[in-house]
Amino acid sequence: MRIQDTRFVVLDTETTGLDPTIHRIVDISLVEVSKNGIRPLYQTLVNPQQTIPPEASEVHHITNRQVKDKPTWKEVWPTILTHIQDAVRVAHNAKFDRSFLPETHRPWICS
Asked: What is the pTM of this model?
């Protein structure tokens, strides 16, 4: 595959904490980068079904009140998967974001 034919999806998550075994995503954003240009794909707040610790809210400014009526991860994952399934994923500190997403056996690039 030629790089100019590659579709990249840049993604960013915000979470309730640093440990993916106990913490959850509270926000995810996706932007496509391809030979056709750059375009926003998807962004949503996510109800983590657990309390967002004050220390996490201090970093990303997302509160429990903001996510209480938002969809859960189980509800948003199918939509996210449709956007990323055929793309190379790009993230700043990709190891962190990747640890919060189900494995899909696609390549990742860390910015």
From this structure: 0.93
